[in-house]
Specification:
Mean pLDDT: 80
Order of helices and strands: HHEEH
Radius of gyration: 22 Å
Structural class: mainly alpha
Number of strands: 2
Shape: elongated
Distance between the termini: 75 Å
Number of helices: 3
Length: 105
């Protein structure tokens, strides 16, 4: 025969499981999708490229710049990074921001 304590423990486990799944769904739903169209290295769920990034990351960035262009994205853990590899690309970004700021005034 199943005890009352066993049933209560199963209900608590089920409730916490549903809460956990709901929290994971909310985190996934709220992630920033503006960077999805940018190219970048393949990442893994939850950890991004975190485990494959070495202490000498500059060599990785140089290789990725040749492969993905002057501006690319990568994900390290929960964080999205946008890497800008040239002064020309940075100037273009600043110029676009200035133009956008001027046009709104």
């Amino acid at each position: 025969m199943i005890s009352t304590e066993g049933i209560l423990a199963n209900k608590q486990f089920l409730v916490w499981g549903v809460i956990l799944l709901f929290a994971i769904f909310l985190l996934w739903f709220q992630q920033d999708r503006r960077l999805n169209s940018m190219s970048g290295p393949k990442d893994y769920p939850l950890i991004g490229i975190g485990l494959s990034l070495s202490p000498r990351a500059t060599s990785f960035f140089r290789g990725w710049a040749l492969e993905y262009g002057e501006i690319f994205k990568l994900r390290v853990g929960w964080y999205n990074w946008v890497v800008i590899n040239s002064p020309e690309a940075m100037k273009e970004i600043f110029d676009m921001q200035v133009d956008a700021a001027i046009s709104t005034h």
